[in-house]
């Protein structure tokens, strides 16, 4: 990815608290870029409209110009968007992800010293979620009970596909869960490459293949195939471990695993989602990069975020690693209950900006923001979401928190 020294970055301000966090986040990023590179690099922010603001000004929630701007400039950033009710749009976020085919949602999960956590060893958390973004039950293929096409589809399933009637009472609504080989492979490939680039020890495939064998189970198998075929030199899989164990015994399998670890290979393993939700709370250090399908990824993302201070400080990015398109975004919603009050934590959007700087290769600026935030948290200066859980901490408004980071 070649980024000019003076790039234009389109941004969507966002609904609700979007207005509160957008400006302060940009100020922090600008300050870090200036500290890192002086006058030799600078971002020009270009506002593009979406959501309520777009509707007020243009009569549509997602103007074509907005999508075009993200295509033209490749990299963008956005605040949260409220899903319009009754507009025939499932979600503006989904529309963006599908238009640009942003097939991975990346969410790093790291803890800042001083931030309250419900787990015992938060400092051991260094996880990176790779959630598939375009398939699964979230593809939006749903059939509502009573509709003609639902009846037809039900008849087809019963008459042509031999599905037992008892499983489909006439009052059923249903949805389709497409999981493709290509979709699984590009997700897992991105996760493995990310682990290799960053020297991370493992990739865990999180799935419900024990129950949904031909969708979630296929995702697991395709992922193992990909690791063994395309990354044979750089990975060692649990499937290989099991094979050695069966053919040569436990001792040889253990030896092979130890040798792979010693060689710095990425260990590719799998875990069933329900077990993973427990596992990640009890032994977070056992999981480094997590590759998972859309629905499970949604659940896993918020649980892991809660381990390190919640969605107010958890960043995210939607990326197509093949085309380079990337939109960095706050992971929380529009928080209408606190919009305009100065209570919103801009941390999630600021850290999404850090991910953006890293993606651009502007690592020095990214480190400045990260270090400064660490410094502010260590001094127990926080916004209201964290303040309530931290006795004796100093309460800052959204803007004051950004100023403290800049200072
Ligand atoms: P939410 O994330 O907006 O709020 C959940 C809770 O977390 C609220 O109590 C809120 O005050 C708090 N919170 C969220 N972000 C915070 C922050 N930065 N600082 C402090 N507190 C914060 O979730 P919701 O209430 O379920 O959704 C509200 C709207 O947001 C809905 O319209 C939903 O569709 C939309 N939404 C958008 C996105 C997105 O754009 N990526 C994601 C989730 C929800």
3D structure, described in words:
With 407 residues, the chain is of the alpha/beta class. The chain has 15 helices and 15 strands. The chain has helices at residues 18-37, 51-58, 64-73, 92-99, 148-159, 181-197, 216-230, 238-248, 250-262, 273-282, 294-307, 347-360, 363-378, 384-387, 398-406, and strands spanning 8-12, 44-47, 75-78, 104-110, 126-132, 142-143, 174-175, 202-207, 235-237, 266-272, 289-292, 315-319, 326-330, 381-382, 394-395. Helix 1 packs parallel to helix 15, helix 6 packs across helix 7 (216-230) and helix 8 runs antiparallel to helix 9. The mean pLDDT is 95. The site of nicotinamide-adenine-dinucleotide has 19 residues, from loops.
State the helical fraction.
40-55%
The helix/strand class is alpha/beta
Strand order of the largest sheet: 2-1-3-13-12-4-5-11-8-10-9
Unreliable residue runs: none
Number of strands: 15
SSE pattern, N- to C-terminal: EHEHHEHEEEHEHEHEHHEHEHEEHHEHEH
Chemical compounds bound to the protein: nicotinamide-adenine-dinucleotide
Number of helices: 15
Radius of gyration: 23 Å
Described by strand count, sense and barrel closure, the largest sheet is: 11 strands, mixed
Estimated share of beta-strand residues = 15-25%
End-to-end gap? 31 Å
Describe the global form: globular
Average predicted confidence as pLDDT: 95
């Amino acid at each position: 990815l070649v980024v000019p020294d003076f790039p234009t970055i389109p941004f969507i301000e966002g609904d609700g608290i979007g207005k509160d966090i957008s400006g302060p986040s940009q100020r922090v990023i600008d300050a870090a870029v200036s500290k890192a590179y002086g006058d030799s690099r600078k971002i020009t922010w270009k506002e593009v409209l979406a959501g309520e603001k777009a509707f007020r000004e243009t009569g549509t929630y997602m103007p074509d110009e907005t999508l075009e701007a993200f295509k033209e400039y490749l990299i963008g950033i956005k605040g949260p968007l409220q899903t319009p009710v009754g507009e025939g749009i499932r979600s503006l976020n989904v529309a963006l992800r599908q238009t640009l085919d942003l097939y991975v949602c990346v969410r790093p999960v790291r803890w800042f010293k001083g931030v309250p956590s419900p787990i015992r060893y938060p400092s051991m958390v260094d996880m990176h979620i790779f959630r598939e973004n375009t398939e699964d039950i979230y593809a939006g293929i749903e059939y509502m009970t009573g509709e003609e096409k639902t009846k037809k589809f039900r008849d087809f399933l019963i008459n042509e596909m031999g599905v037992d009637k008892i499983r489909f009472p006439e009052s059923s609504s249903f949805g389709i869960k497409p999981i493709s080989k290509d979709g699984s492979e590009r997700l897992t490939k991105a996760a493995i490459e990310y682990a290799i680039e960053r020297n991370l020890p493992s990739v865990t495939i999180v799935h419900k293949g024990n129950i949904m064998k031909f969708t979630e189970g296929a995702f697991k198998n395709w992922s193992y195939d990909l690791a063994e075929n395309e990354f044979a030199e750089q990975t060692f899989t649990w499937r290989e471990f099991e094979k050695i164990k069966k053919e040569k015994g436990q001792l040889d399998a253990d030896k092979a695993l130890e040798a792979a670890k010693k060689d710095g290979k990425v260990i590719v393993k799998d875990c069933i989602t329900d077990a993973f939700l427990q596992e990640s709370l009890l032994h977070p250090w056992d999981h480094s990069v997590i590759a998972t399908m859309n629905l499970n990824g949604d659940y896993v993302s918020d649980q892991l975020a809660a381990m390190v201070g919640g969605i107010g400080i958890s960043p995210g990015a939607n990326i197509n690693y093949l085309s380079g398109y990337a939109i960095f975004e706050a992971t929380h919603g529009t928080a209408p209950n606190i919009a305009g009050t100065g209570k919103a934590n801009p941390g999630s959007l600021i850290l999404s900006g850090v991910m953006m700087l890293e993606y651009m290769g502007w690592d020095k600026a990214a480190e400045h923001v990260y270090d400064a935030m660490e410094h502010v948290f260590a001094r127990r200066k926080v916004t209201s979401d964290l303040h309530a859980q931290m006795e004796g901490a100093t309460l800052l408004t959204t803007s004051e928190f950004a100023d403290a980071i800049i200072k």
